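User: What would this chain look like folded?
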Amino acid sequence: MGDAAHAKRDSAHNRGDAADVTHDETTAGPHGDVIAALALADPRTRLVIWNGRIWNRERGDKAWRPYAGANSHATHVHVEILPARRGDASPWPWSPEIWTAARSWPSAPDQT
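Assistant: Here's the prediction, encoded as structure tokens.
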């Protein structure tokens, strides 16, 4: 899950605790806002970074806060899982098998 850039430092990607879910409006998949909302609702999720914002379950975040990292994550949603949930192999809500069953996605939530 980690690339060369992540390999140079300690990264949740390298530990197998994070994945970047690409936001691509040219496909039939969900919009990045929807992916982020679905990740926030999943009990396996520890942290989400998307479009210049961050949410962290362990901090007790109740809302998004600004994210000032070098990569604003505007083209993909960064999803980290709780290490204790790493063995949970159930499909994520945006996975292809769920896409097929859903056939449509809810509108993106308000950005405020």
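The helical segments are 4-7, 12-15, 32-41, 96-102. If you want, I can go into more detail on any region.
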